[in-house]
Design a protein that fits this description.
alpha/beta; Rossmann fold; 18 helices
Protein backbone atom coordinates (compact mmCIF):
# COMPACT_ATOMS: atom_id res chain seq x y z
CA UNK A 1 0.00 0.00 0.00
CA UNK A 2 2.79 2.40 -0.90
CA UNK A 3 0.55 5.19 -2.12
CA UNK A 4 -1.39 5.23 1.15
CA UNK A 5 1.51 4.64 3.50
CA UNK A 6 3.55 7.50 2.09
CA UNK A 7 0.93 9.89 3.46
CA UNK A 8 1.09 8.23 6.92
CA UNK A 9 4.84 8.15 7.42
CA UNK A 10 5.63 8.95 11.05
CA UNK A 11 8.99 10.58 10.33
CA UNK A 12 7.50 12.86 7.69
CA UNK A 13 4.66 13.68 10.08
CA UNK A 14 7.17 14.61 12.77
CA UNK A 15 9.01 16.92 10.39
CA UNK A 16 5.77 18.59 9.32
CA UNK A 17 4.68 19.03 12.94
CA UNK A 18 8.06 20.63 13.71
CA UNK A 19 7.61 22.98 10.76
CA UNK A 20 4.20 24.01 12.09
CA UNK A 21 5.67 24.67 15.53
CA UNK A 22 8.45 26.75 13.98
CA UNK A 23 6.09 29.14 12.18
CA UNK A 24 3.59 29.42 15.07
CA UNK A 25 4.06 32.48 17.28
CA UNK A 26 0.53 33.02 18.62
CA UNK A 27 -2.74 31.10 19.18
CA UNK A 28 -4.81 30.17 16.14
CA UNK A 29 -8.13 28.32 15.73
CA UNK A 30 -8.60 26.29 12.55
CA UNK A 31 -11.70 24.37 11.50
CA UNK A 32 -11.69 21.33 9.24
CA UNK A 33 -14.90 21.20 7.26
CA UNK A 34 -14.98 17.49 6.43
CA UNK A 35 -15.95 14.58 8.66
CA UNK A 36 -13.42 12.36 6.91
CA UNK A 37 -10.70 14.76 7.96
CA UNK A 38 -12.10 14.79 11.51
CA UNK A 39 -11.85 11.01 11.72
CA UNK A 40 -8.27 11.05 10.40
CA UNK A 41 -7.28 13.75 12.91
CA UNK A 42 -8.68 11.82 15.86
CA UNK A 43 -7.69 8.35 14.63
CA UNK A 44 -4.04 9.22 14.01
CA UNK A 45 -3.65 11.80 16.77
CA UNK A 46 -2.86 14.63 14.35
CA UNK A 47 -4.12 17.22 16.85
CA UNK A 48 -1.77 15.80 19.48
CA UNK A 49 1.25 16.52 17.26
CA UNK A 50 0.49 20.23 17.10
CA UNK A 51 1.81 23.00 19.35
CA UNK A 52 -0.54 24.02 22.17
CA UNK A 53 -1.20 27.34 20.42
CA UNK A 54 -3.04 25.58 17.56
CA UNK A 55 -6.66 24.59 18.25
CA UNK A 56 -8.52 22.40 15.79
CA UNK A 57 -12.32 22.54 15.86
CA UNK A 58 -14.67 20.28 13.96
CA UNK A 59 -17.25 21.83 11.66
CA UNK A 60 -20.48 20.67 10.00
CA UNK A 61 -18.53 18.37 7.70
CA UNK A 62 -20.88 15.41 7.72
CA UNK A 63 -23.96 15.62 5.46
CA UNK A 64 -25.70 12.87 7.42
CA UNK A 65 -25.16 14.81 10.64
CA UNK A 66 -26.49 18.12 9.34
CA UNK A 67 -29.67 16.61 7.86
CA UNK A 68 -32.35 18.15 10.08
CA UNK A 69 -34.59 16.05 12.29
CA UNK A 70 -37.64 17.32 10.39
CA UNK A 71 -36.35 15.74 7.18
CA UNK A 72 -35.44 12.50 8.98
CA UNK A 73 -39.00 12.37 10.29
CA UNK A 74 -40.32 12.81 6.73
CA UNK A 75 -38.11 9.94 5.61
CA UNK A 76 -39.44 7.75 8.41
CA UNK A 77 -43.04 8.52 7.52
CA UNK A 78 -42.52 7.70 3.85
CA UNK A 79 -40.49 4.56 4.62
CA UNK A 80 -43.33 3.17 6.76
CA UNK A 81 -45.85 3.30 3.90
CA UNK A 82 -46.77 -0.23 2.73
CA UNK A 83 -46.42 0.59 -0.97
CA UNK A 84 -42.89 2.00 -0.60
CA UNK A 85 -39.42 0.53 -0.99
CA UNK A 86 -37.24 3.09 0.77
CA UNK A 87 -33.58 3.18 -0.30
CA UNK A 88 -30.74 4.83 1.58
CA UNK A 89 -27.02 4.71 2.11
CA UNK A 90 -26.18 2.61 5.15
CA UNK A 91 -25.04 5.38 7.47
CA UNK A 92 -28.55 6.92 7.50
CA UNK A 93 -30.25 3.86 9.00
CA UNK A 94 -29.25 4.54 12.62
CA UNK A 95 -29.68 8.33 12.55
CA UNK A 96 -32.41 9.16 15.06
CA UNK A 97 -35.51 11.11 14.15
CA UNK A 98 -37.82 12.45 16.83
CA UNK A 99 -38.84 9.01 18.07
CA UNK A 100 -37.26 6.28 15.92
CA UNK A 101 -34.85 5.55 13.06
CA UNK A 102 -34.98 3.74 9.73
CA UNK A 103 -33.81 0.48 11.29
CA UNK A 104 -36.83 0.61 13.61
CA UNK A 105 -39.11 1.18 10.63
CA UNK A 106 -37.51 -1.84 8.95
CA UNK A 107 -37.93 -3.97 12.08
CA UNK A 108 -41.60 -3.03 12.14
CA UNK A 109 -42.12 -4.28 8.60
CA UNK A 110 -41.10 -1.36 6.42
CA UNK A 111 -39.23 -2.23 3.23
CA UNK A 112 -36.00 -0.29 3.89
CA UNK A 113 -32.98 -1.21 1.80
CA UNK A 114 -29.34 -0.14 1.74
CA UNK A 115 -28.03 0.82 -1.70
CA UNK A 116 -24.52 1.74 -2.78
CA UNK A 117 -25.48 4.19 -5.53
CA UNK A 118 -28.62 6.11 -6.55
CA UNK A 119 -28.80 4.10 -9.78
CA UNK A 120 -29.36 0.99 -7.64
CA UNK A 121 -32.69 2.51 -6.58
CA UNK A 122 -33.61 3.19 -10.22
CA UNK A 123 -32.97 -0.47 -11.04
CA UNK A 124 -35.15 -1.50 -8.10
CA UNK A 125 -37.97 0.64 -9.48
CA UNK A 126 -37.63 -1.14 -12.83
CA UNK A 127 -37.81 -4.55 -11.15
CA UNK A 128 -40.74 -3.63 -8.90
CA UNK A 129 -43.28 -1.64 -10.94
CA UNK A 130 -45.93 -2.47 -8.33
CA UNK A 131 -44.03 -0.46 -5.67
CA UNK A 132 -43.02 3.15 -5.17
CA UNK A 133 -39.23 3.30 -4.81
CA UNK A 134 -37.88 6.29 -2.91
CA UNK A 135 -34.19 7.19 -2.62
CA UNK A 136 -32.99 9.33 0.31
CA UNK A 137 -30.55 11.68 -1.45
CA UNK A 138 -28.19 12.89 1.27
CA UNK A 139 -24.78 14.42 0.67
CA UNK A 140 -22.64 17.41 -0.15
CA UNK A 141 -21.90 18.46 -3.71
CA UNK A 142 -19.66 15.38 -3.93
CA UNK A 143 -22.54 12.93 -4.33
CA UNK A 144 -24.95 15.26 -6.15
CA UNK A 145 -23.75 14.28 -9.68
CA UNK A 146 -24.61 10.62 -9.06
CA UNK A 147 -28.03 11.64 -7.74
CA UNK A 148 -28.58 13.83 -10.81
CA UNK A 149 -27.58 10.95 -13.07
CA UNK A 150 -30.21 8.71 -11.44
CA UNK A 151 -32.92 11.32 -12.08
CA UNK A 152 -31.87 11.67 -15.72
CA UNK A 153 -31.85 7.89 -16.17
CA UNK A 154 -35.30 7.48 -14.60
CA UNK A 155 -36.61 10.31 -16.77
CA UNK A 156 -35.09 8.82 -19.95
CA UNK A 157 -36.60 5.41 -19.22
CA UNK A 158 -39.95 6.95 -18.22
CA UNK A 159 -39.88 5.23 -14.83
CA UNK A 160 -42.87 6.62 -12.99
CA UNK A 161 -42.57 4.74 -9.69
CA UNK A 162 -39.26 6.32 -8.67
CA UNK A 163 -38.77 9.46 -6.57
CA UNK A 164 -36.26 11.12 -4.25
CA UNK A 165 -36.29 12.75 -0.86
CA UNK A 166 -33.60 15.32 -1.57
CA UNK A 167 -31.38 16.54 1.27
CA UNK A 168 -28.29 17.70 -0.63
CA UNK A 169 -26.42 20.61 0.95
CA UNK A 170 -23.68 22.95 -0.30
CA UNK A 171 -20.57 23.66 1.76
CA UNK A 172 -19.57 27.31 1.05
CA UNK A 173 -22.80 28.86 2.46
CA UNK A 174 -22.32 26.89 5.69
CA UNK A 175 -18.76 28.17 5.98
CA UNK A 176 -20.01 31.71 5.47
CA UNK A 177 -22.66 31.18 8.14
CA UNK A 178 -19.93 30.20 10.61
CA UNK A 179 -17.70 33.14 9.65
CA UNK A 180 -20.59 35.62 9.90
CA UNK A 181 -21.70 34.44 13.36
CA UNK A 182 -21.29 37.16 16.05
CA UNK A 183 -19.05 35.04 18.26
CA UNK A 184 -17.10 33.24 15.56
CA UNK A 185 -13.70 31.98 16.73
CA UNK A 186 -12.59 30.31 13.48
CA UNK A 187 -9.56 32.01 11.90
CA UNK A 188 -8.80 29.54 9.11
CA UNK A 189 -10.40 26.61 7.28
CA UNK A 190 -9.27 23.28 5.91
CA UNK A 191 -11.70 22.83 3.01
CA UNK A 192 -13.00 19.41 1.98
CA UNK A 193 -10.88 18.05 -0.86
CA UNK A 194 -13.57 15.75 -2.27
CA UNK A 195 -16.10 18.60 -2.56
CA UNK A 196 -13.53 20.72 -4.37
CA UNK A 197 -12.74 17.83 -6.72
CA UNK A 198 -16.28 18.28 -8.04
CA UNK A 199 -16.90 22.00 -7.56
CA UNK A 200 -13.42 23.53 -7.68
CA UNK A 201 -12.62 26.36 -5.31
CA UNK A 202 -13.49 29.65 -6.97
CA UNK A 203 -16.36 30.17 -4.48
CA UNK A 204 -13.87 29.85 -1.63
CA UNK A 205 -11.77 32.66 -3.07
CA UNK A 206 -14.65 35.08 -2.53
CA UNK A 207 -15.11 33.87 1.05
CA UNK A 208 -11.41 34.15 1.87
CA UNK A 209 -11.29 37.71 0.61
CA UNK A 210 -14.59 38.84 2.17
CA UNK A 211 -13.80 37.50 5.65
CA UNK A 212 -9.99 37.73 5.45
CA UNK A 213 -9.76 34.04 6.33
CA UNK A 214 -7.27 31.59 4.82
CA UNK A 215 -8.90 28.53 3.23
CA UNK A 216 -6.72 25.53 2.39
CA UNK A 217 -8.16 22.83 0.14
CA UNK A 218 -6.94 19.74 1.96
CA UNK A 219 -6.83 15.95 1.50
CA UNK A 220 -7.67 13.26 4.02
CA UNK A 221 -4.48 11.48 5.05
CA UNK A 222 -2.48 12.59 8.12
CA UNK A 223 0.27 14.24 6.08
CA UNK A 224 -2.32 16.01 3.92
CA UNK A 225 -3.92 17.46 7.03
CA UNK A 226 -0.63 18.47 8.65
CA UNK A 227 0.45 20.15 5.41
CA UNK A 228 -2.90 21.95 5.20
CA UNK A 229 -2.48 23.19 8.79
CA UNK A 230 1.06 24.37 8.00
CA UNK A 231 -0.14 26.37 4.98
CA UNK A 232 -3.00 27.85 6.99
CA UNK A 233 -0.83 28.86 9.95
CA UNK A 234 1.78 30.35 7.63
CA UNK A 235 -0.88 32.56 6.04
CA UNK A 236 -2.27 33.57 9.42
CA UNK A 237 1.17 34.49 10.73
CA UNK A 238 1.92 36.51 7.59
CA UNK A 239 -1.44 38.30 7.61
CA UNK A 240 -2.56 36.78 4.30
CA UNK A 241 -5.98 35.35 3.42
CA UNK A 242 -6.12 33.40 0.17
CA UNK A 243 -7.14 29.95 -1.05
CA UNK A 244 -4.33 27.43 -1.41
CA UNK A 245 -4.67 23.97 -2.92
CA UNK A 246 -2.85 21.40 -0.79
CA UNK A 247 -4.74 18.59 -2.54
CA UNK A 248 -3.38 19.36 -6.01
CA UNK A 249 -3.11 15.66 -6.88
CA UNK A 250 -6.92 15.51 -7.04
CA UNK A 251 -8.31 19.07 -7.20
CA UNK A 252 -8.26 21.65 -9.98
CA UNK A 253 -9.36 25.24 -9.49
CA UNK A 254 -12.29 24.84 -11.87
CA UNK A 255 -13.29 21.39 -10.58
CA UNK A 256 -15.09 18.91 -12.84
CA UNK A 257 -17.12 20.74 -15.47
CA UNK A 258 -18.92 17.53 -16.45
CA UNK A 259 -20.07 16.87 -12.88
CA UNK A 260 -21.14 20.48 -12.44
CA UNK A 261 -23.20 20.31 -15.64
CA UNK A 262 -25.04 17.26 -14.30
CA UNK A 263 -25.86 19.09 -11.07
CA UNK A 264 -27.01 22.23 -12.89
CA UNK A 265 -29.21 20.25 -15.27
CA UNK A 266 -31.19 18.53 -12.50
CA UNK A 267 -30.93 20.79 -9.45
CA UNK A 268 -31.43 24.41 -8.50
CA UNK A 269 -30.05 26.19 -5.45
CA UNK A 270 -32.60 26.43 -2.60
CA UNK A 271 -32.62 27.41 1.08
CA UNK A 272 -31.89 24.52 3.42
CA UNK A 273 -32.28 23.84 7.13
CA UNK A 274 -29.09 22.49 8.73
CA UNK A 275 -29.03 20.60 11.99
CA UNK A 276 -27.09 22.75 14.44
CA UNK A 277 -26.83 25.77 12.13
CA UNK A 278 -30.47 26.51 11.34
CA UNK A 279 -31.76 27.86 8.03
CA UNK A 280 -29.06 28.92 5.57
CA UNK A 281 -29.98 30.71 2.35
CA UNK A 282 -28.79 29.18 -0.95
CA UNK A 283 -27.26 26.21 0.86
CA UNK A 284 -29.23 23.32 -0.59
CA UNK A 285 -30.03 21.64 -3.86
CA UNK A 286 -33.62 20.94 -4.90
CA UNK A 287 -35.05 19.36 -8.02
CA UNK A 288 -35.80 21.75 -10.86
CA UNK A 289 -39.45 22.12 -11.85
CA UNK A 290 -39.02 19.97 -14.97
CA UNK A 291 -38.02 17.07 -12.71
CA UNK A 292 -40.56 17.81 -9.96
CA UNK A 293 -42.32 14.52 -10.73
CA UNK A 294 -39.42 12.79 -8.99
CA UNK A 295 -39.85 14.80 -5.76
CA UNK A 296 -40.97 12.43 -2.99
CA UNK A 297 -42.37 15.26 -0.85
CA UNK A 298 -44.65 16.36 -3.68
CA UNK A 299 -45.58 12.79 -4.49
CA UNK A 300 -46.51 11.74 -0.96
CA UNK A 301 -47.59 15.08 0.46
CA UNK A 302 -45.83 14.26 3.69
CA UNK A 303 -46.47 16.58 6.61
CA UNK A 304 -44.51 15.23 9.55
CA UNK A 305 -45.31 16.51 13.06
CA UNK A 306 -43.04 19.00 14.78
CA UNK A 307 -39.62 17.47 15.36
CA UNK A 308 -38.10 17.00 18.80
CA UNK A 309 -34.55 16.31 19.94
CA UNK A 310 -33.21 15.15 23.33
CA UNK A 311 -32.50 18.16 25.54
CA UNK A 312 -29.18 16.78 26.78
CA UNK A 313 -27.76 16.34 23.26
CA UNK A 314 -25.40 19.18 22.24
CA UNK A 315 -24.81 17.91 18.70
CA UNK A 316 -25.76 21.34 17.34
CA UNK A 317 -22.90 22.96 19.24
CA UNK A 318 -20.54 20.19 18.10
CA UNK A 319 -21.51 20.79 14.48
CA UNK A 320 -20.85 24.52 14.89
CA UNK A 321 -17.38 23.81 16.29
CA UNK A 322 -18.33 25.49 19.56
CA UNK A 323 -18.01 22.32 21.67
CA UNK A 324 -15.99 19.11 21.47
CA UNK A 325 -17.84 15.77 21.78
CA UNK A 326 -16.42 14.97 25.24
CA UNK A 327 -17.97 18.17 26.57
CA UNK A 328 -21.44 16.71 26.10
CA UNK A 329 -22.77 15.29 29.40
CA UNK A 330 -24.38 12.41 27.50
CA UNK A 331 -21.23 11.41 25.58
CA UNK A 332 -20.39 7.74 26.16
CA UNK A 333 -23.10 7.45 28.80
CA UNK A 334 -26.61 8.07 27.52
CA UNK A 335 -25.31 8.51 23.97
CA UNK A 336 -23.35 5.72 22.29
CA UNK A 337 -23.18 4.34 18.73
CA UNK A 338 -25.62 1.61 19.82
CA UNK A 339 -28.07 4.12 21.35
CA UNK A 340 -27.31 7.51 19.75
CA UNK A 341 -29.06 10.70 20.80
CA UNK A 342 -27.69 12.68 17.86
CA UNK A 343 -26.50 12.02 14.32
CA UNK A 344 -22.78 12.81 14.97
CA UNK A 345 -22.56 9.76 17.25
CA UNK A 346 -23.77 7.28 14.63
CA UNK A 347 -22.63 8.63 11.25
CA UNK A 348 -19.40 7.23 9.84
CA UNK A 349 -18.19 10.84 9.46
CA UNK A 350 -19.59 12.20 12.72
CA UNK A 351 -17.24 13.90 15.19
CA UNK A 352 -18.84 12.19 18.21
CA UNK A 353 -18.41 8.78 16.57
CA UNK A 354 -14.73 9.55 15.95
CA UNK A 355 -14.09 10.53 19.56
CA UNK A 356 -16.04 7.56 20.89
CA UNK A 357 -14.13 5.12 18.70
CA UNK A 358 -10.62 6.50 19.07
CA UNK A 359 -10.56 8.50 22.31
CA UNK A 360 -13.18 6.77 24.45
CA UNK A 361 -12.30 3.14 23.69
CA UNK A 362 -9.28 1.20 25.03
CA UNK A 363 -5.87 2.39 23.74
CA UNK A 364 -5.17 -0.87 21.88
CA UNK A 365 -8.04 -0.08 19.48
CA UNK A 366 -6.59 3.23 18.35
CA UNK A 367 -4.52 3.52 15.20
CA UNK A 368 -1.31 5.54 15.26
CA UNK A 369 1.04 6.84 12.64
CA UNK A 370 3.71 4.55 14.09
CA UNK A 371 1.56 1.46 13.45
CA UNK A 372 0.89 2.40 9.83
CA UNK A 373 4.48 3.35 9.01
CA UNK A 374 5.90 0.97 6.38
Amino acid sequence: MKFVDEYRDKDAAGRMAAAIAQVTTRPWTIMEICGGQTHAIVKYGVDQLLPDAITLVHGPGCPVCVTPVELIDKALEIAALPEVIFCSFGDMLRVPGSHRDLLTVKANGGDVRVVYAPLDAVKLAQRHPEKQVVFFAVGFETTAPATALAVLQANRLNITNFSMLVAHVCVPPAMESILAAPHNQVQGFLAAGHVCTVMGYTEYETLAQRYQTPIIVTGFEPLDILHGIYLCVKQLEEGRATVENQYARAVRREGSREAQQLITEVFEVVPRQWRGLGAIADSGLGLRERYAGFDAVRRFGTAAPAATTPSECISGLVLQGVKKPQECPAFGKHCTPEQPLGAPMVSTEGACAAYYRYRHSPPHSRATLQETNP
